[in-house]
Design goal:
The structure is a single chain. By secondary structure, the chain is of the alpha+beta class. 66% of the residues lie in helices and 16% in strands. It contains 6 helices and 5 strands, in the order αααββαβαββα. Strands 2-1-5-4-3 form a 5-stranded antiparallel beta sheet, with helices on both faces. The longest helix has 96 residues. The chain is rod-shaped and about 155 Å long.
């Protein structure tokens, strides 16, 4: 009973705590890795359309090298000629800024122009295409005199800003900012997210079950070995106590025999003296 109580009080709680901590660490690691994978995948999806627009924009670079109306109209026709492309077909607004980030042209006409931020300009001057995805953007804040239904007033948008080189000097000349309908990208991202969540759940379920089974089996063996060792220890302790008791008993017997032997001769002499006196 004492052995069973000791095992339950110390070994089993320690085993349960170890299993729980291991499962928590494993789950946190899997979730962290998959979250970083999700962010990297989402960034790749967003940058994919940005890179595509950068290539298309560079193809029509001469059309935006100056800001006069004829060349801008040629750029508009260049975009229209590529309408079968999924990305270009989803463009809802385009804005051209000068090398200082100031807006100079935009389509459609009711688009509210806005200058570029300093951080964006610094990246563009390093020839980096900027791609950002917004889950929800209110279109009535981007356009003047735009009548929209409540279902169309807030949509996901993809913003892409492409740096433009001067065709003469090769220096940073301007930038083109695209606003693209992001509903198709939002669906793609949602599908990727669902798949990743499903894979993460399967990995967590199978991994936790496997780890729990292995640890439970391991601790069961350790429990049995520990129980056996404790039983042997108790038996050895009892045997040792019995040996000590036997040694003590033997010592007491030897001392008693010695005392009896030591007292036997004086008593015999006393008895002989008394018998002589009576006779």
């Amino acid at each position: 009973m004492e052995l069973k109580t000791a095992l339950h009080n110390y070994f089993i709680p320690a085993a349960v705590l170890t299993i729980l901590v291991t499962l928590i660490v494993f789950s946190a690691s899997v979730i962290g890795i998959n979250y970083r994978l999700w962010r990297a995948t989402k960034s790749q999806v967003i940058e994919r359309d940005g890179k595509m627009l950068a290539v298309i924009t560079n193809m029509g670079q001469e059309a935006v090298d100056t800001y006069d109306t004829p060349t801008w109209l040629r750029f508009q026709k260049f975009l229209d000629s590529n309408q079968p492309n999924t990305v270009l077909a989803s463009i809802i607004a385009v804005q051209v800024t000068d090398k200082l980030g100031k807006a100079v042209k935009s389509l459609p006409r009711n688009f509210i122009q806005a200058p570029l931020q300093n951080n964006d300009m610094a990246m563009l001057k390093r020839w980096k295409t900027i791609s950002r995805f917004y889950d929800t953007v209110w279109l009535d804040a981007m356009f003047d005199d735009m009548l929209l239904s409540p279902s169309d007033s807030a949509v996901p948008l993809l913003e892409v800003i492409v740096p433009i080189r001067s065709s003469t000097s090769g220096d940073f000349h301007s930038a083109i900012q695209y606003w693209i309908d992001g509903r198709s990208m939002a669906k793609e991202i949602a599908i990727l997210k669902d798949r990743l969540v499903t894979q993460t759940a399967l990995v967590l379920l199978s991994g936790n079950l496997l780890i729990a089974a292995i640890l439970f089996w391991s601790f069961s063996r350790v429990y049995r070995v520990n129980k056996h060792l404790r039983t042997q220890t108790i038996r050895l302790k009892r045997a040792n106590e019995e040996l000590i008791l036997a040694a003590k008993t033997s010592a007491i017997g030897a001392i008693t025999a010695h005392l009896v032997h030591g007292l036997k001769n004086p008593i015999a002499g006393l008895q002989a003296f008394i018998e002589d006196q009576w006779s």
